[in-house]
Design brief:
Elements: E1 6-9, E2 12-15, H1 22-44, H2 50-72, H3 81-107
Antiparallel strand pairs: 1-2
Helix pairs in contact: 1-2
Length: about 110
């Protein structure tokens, strides 16, 4: 069953979820490997500007987090708003702590 269908369930109807299949997971896995290889190649090349390498690594890390959270932890599915909000709150608190610690170290 590839579409949403209603199945009888002891007095009511139970909605079945769409089955994604392994194709999306394989594509996302390959994308994760490519992101890792790009980050590794940037550092292993040696001749790359350090600032560019750091920015590239940060961009690759953010993309990896989005891929991992969205596809492997299924946060792209319906009904996951509360966990997403809690994670965003955690990222905000962690970012605030990092910024404040850098401020205290460098400007005080």
């Amino acid at each position: 069953m590839t579409t949403d269908q209603h199945m009888p369930d002891s007095g009511g109807y139970k909605q079945r979820h769409r089955h994604e299949g392994p194709q999306k997971h394989i594509v996302v896995f390959i994308f994760s490997i490519v992101l890792t290889l790009i980050a590794f190649a940037a550092v292993a090349a040696g001749g790359v500007n350090a600032t560019f390498a750091i920015i590239l690594l940060l961009v690759m890390a953010v993309l990896q987090v989005i891929v991992q959270m969205g596809f492997w932890m299924h946060l792209k599915d319906k009904g996951h708003l509360l966990p997403i909000l809690f994670m965003l709150g955690g990222f905000f608190i962690a970012g605030t702590c990092i910024v404040m610690s850098l401020y205290w170290v460098w400007w005080n």
